[in-house]
Amino acid sequence: MTDDLDAETLAFAHRMFDLARAGSTEELAAQVDAGLPVNLTNDKGDTLLILAAYHSHPDTVAALLARGADHTRANDRGQTALAAAVFRSSADAVRALLAAGADPAHGTPSAAETAQFFDLPEMAELLRAG
């Protein structure tokens, strides 16, 4: 699929993924507001939301969710944004994802399984209370 995209478009997409990784909430939100697909996905299946969650940027997670990001999407390894946020012990991101309806049992491994495997009792409690 990327063979159909020119170098400028690919560079722009890479920059958008970098904004998600860096937690550049305002700039990324402005790009989504201007028409960037909120569920843009890279070659590994990572969405902007998954990257923001994995890199512990709860404000970016919340902004993407407010713009319709799909919290049910999993990357090519079956990982969800909620599992990523749990893995990083990002309580605010976990709360935002749960408030948006993210399912702790969805994904491989699921967020609940991630909390158990990595012995993250605070995250497990958040998921139960969610």
Automatic annotation (TrEMBL):
SUPFAM superfamilies: Ankyrin repeat. PROSITE patterns: ANK_REP_REGION (PS50297), ANK_REPEAT (PS50088). Keywords: ANK repeat, Repeat. ANK repeats lie at residues 44-76, 77-103. InterPro entries: Ankyrin_rpt (IPR002110), Ankyrin_rpt-contain_sf (IPR036770). SMART domains: ANK (SM00248). It holds the Pfam family Ank_2. The keyword Oxidoreductase does not apply. Transmembrane segments: none annotated. PANTHER family: ANKYRIN REPEAT DOMAIN-CONTAINING PROTEIN 39-RELATED (PTHR24171). This is Ankyrin repeat domain-containing protein.
